[in-house]
Amino acid sequence: MTSPRFPEGALIGVLTTQPLDRVLDYRAPPGGCAAGDHVEVPFGPRKVTGVVWGAGAGDYDPAKVKSAIRVLDIPAMRAPMREFLGRVADYTLTPMPAMLRLATRAPGLTDPPGMRKIFRRGHGQPGRMTPARARVLDLLEEHDGMGFMLGELADLAGVGSSVVKGLVASGAVAEEEAPRDVPYPSLDPEMPGKALTGDQAMAAARLREGIKAGRYGTTLLKGVTGSGKTEVYLEAVAACLAAGRQALVLLPEIALTAEFLTRVEARFGAKPAEWHSGVTTTERRRCWKMVAESGAQLVVGARSALFLPFADLGLIVVDEEHDTSYKQEDGVLYNARDMAVLRASLEKAQVVLASATPSLESWVNVQAGKYARVDLESRFGPAVMPEMRAIDMRGEEVPSGSWISPSLKGAVRERLERGEQSLLFLNRRGYAPLTLCRACGHQIGCKHCDARMVEHRFLKRLMCHQCGETAPMPETCPNCEVTGKLAAVGPGVERITEEAQALFPDARVTVLSSDLFGSARALKARILEIAEGAADIVVGTQLVAKGHNFPKLTLVGVIDSDLGLQGSDLRAAERTFQLMRQVAGRAGRAEARGTALLQSFQPEHPVIRAILSGDEEGFWAAEAAARRAAGVPPYGRMAGIVISSPDMQAAFDLGNRLARLDAPLRRIGAQLFGPAPAPIARVRGRHRVRLLVKAEKTAPLQAALAEWAAQLRLPANLRLAIDIDPQSFL
Ligand SMILES: [Zn+2]
Ligand SMILES: [Zn+2]
């Protein structure tokens, strides 16, 4: 597709990142420009950047239309990318300037190319070590050879730039001239991959076929943990690179990136480009530009990598496609899995959705024939899926303040005697979810939210899991001022750790919870130690369910299998099923067959029974039928509307006015529920009121929502967020 060219002085429409609801008219700069070009334009007294979106509308006084200043020396935004941004904006009801911000989120795009000074770890040692110098050196070590700009390094280490310069003088930090934005080392798709088993080879062949066809297609790659999904989709990456196109692999968690990069290096001889919040700004800029200039063949990243300016994208892999972290819950509310499918369809690219426990949405799309499906049945190596059993907690004698049943205790003891590892799983961070005053019954809550403060005993703090507020653990009840009566109620992983250590004083007990590690790197290091046998009993949150390998682990004990079954979330059953399967899949990955024991007070619950029987297809069919009957996603459509304000009454008033103005929604046959207080009715000091819209699958929901919301002008301190296909119902 060639973009129309505009000669100097021609009227052009420029989309900027300024919060305006329209594309602005300018005149083409000297030398002319083309649709998609990044340009610098005058905006009031300032200069801002934007993208030429097409011909100008011409509805402005021609005498007042200013000329664009220049075309930036970066590759133009391709037509499929412009269409992608427009379609995501329409789908998520996001203003275009916000979409453009998402697509140009790299620093220094307006800078001229050339040389720049960068700073890395040098060979020398500082004459005298100070805390400030140590911070700089630790940071450089942590980023493993990566170069930083001076200001960036000083900022991240929290020191003045003179500290860095002092380190340069001693040779502890090296200052180098480096060309900006060099291409990434080239990956060799011809290098031999790991030997594949029969069904892995078959699965890889099917994915390669899709790539070779050079057209759009989505494949669900389903395989139990350890079945070799990664090896298989790396074959699709190899085929894509061999065809001269670019590939993108999305991972749900930064902590998984390091291990994945190592696998890519082993397979293709070099590391790929990285894009996530842990990457330095210098590297982000390099990644953005190289992706646009075909200087990066493969990008591994978080969901926002979907908005990188690929020159020729041939494959998107969404690993752990069911993972809830693919849904962006702040700013532009999009689901990266669904938007990956949209982008691939515009780029004539293939999508691989990999999971051991697919989302119901993907399962339904396979049933409907929209997605292909490839199954990996056998496990990589001799191990098989663990044996799963419930422990009926109604028949167990568990003293109050304890949560590990005698049956589970016995199973852990057996593992200890055999020198094997056990995992005790509880999806609750901290020590106790509730701190209660035994004198007056007061529950300690967050000052800013309607959430309870969670005790984190290891950090010696109370913490709000909604807003992150922390406070020291009080001695005295803040309500009745009686001392010594505050009691922890219910278990978190820290408390289970304490219980396990008391039950097995000679065992090495460790806890894996994201809040206990300062950095992704520290967490990763600890996971490796545990995998190599540094602990006998691991107590962990859902963090352990996410793709980490523990070869010595043969027992998984789920402390509270019923935890996810309560609550009003329509995906509660699906989430519980997925999480339990993933956690159980941690057991017995090497030689020994593992066991998973699920403590439950309702072992006859259909979800628990489905988990135990391992009848996945049966579970999905039953869950799909229930959703179809209720007309909820994926068989119906939903949108969540959250109104927030420092003033509760103002939020409710707006909600009620919106509810009365529901004609645009009624016209499409949609139902409106609410306003009601959101499940967590106050977050960060803002009161939250929620409305829920439910419509048939084919109803033009976005258009109706846009018309509906446009009827009201929002007062200054009220916010309204529309979430299409809400995942969480907070
Ligand atoms: Zn009290
Ligand atoms: Zn809070």
TrEMBL record:
Zn(2+) 2 binds at C446, C449, C464, C467. Its EC number is 5.6.2.4. One of its GO terms (molecular function) is ATP binding. It comes from the Bacteria. Residues 210-376 form the Helicase ATP-binding domain. It is an enzyme of class 5 (isomerase). It catalyses: Couples ATP hydrolysis with the unwinding of duplex DNA by translocating in the 3'-5' direction; ATP + H2O = ADP + phosphate + H(+). Keywords: ATP-binding, DNA replication, DNA-binding, Helicase, Hydrolase, Isomerase, Metal-binding, Nucleotide-binding, Primosome, Zinc. GO terms for biological process: DNA recombination; DNA replication initiation; DNA replication, synthesis of primer; double-strand break repair. Binds 2 zinc ions per subunit. Its cofactor is Zn(2+). The keyword ATP-binding applies. GO terms for cellular component: primosome complex. Zn(2+) 1 binds at C437, C440, C477, C480. Pfam families: DEAD, PriA_3primeBD, PriA_C, Zn_ribbon_PriA. CDD domains: DEXHc_priA. SUPFAM superfamilies: P-loop containing nucleoside triphosphate hydrolases. Belongs to the helicase family. PriA subfamily. Initiates the restart of stalled replication forks, which reloads the replicative helicase on sites other than the origin of replication. Recognizes and binds to abandoned replication forks and remodels them to uncover a helicase loading site. Promotes assembly of the primosome at these replication forks. Component of the replication restart primosome. This is Replication restart protein PriA. It comes from Limimaricola cinnabarinus. The lineage of its organism: Bacteria, Pseudomonadati, Pseudomonadota, Alphaproteobacteria, Rhodobacterales. The gene is priA.
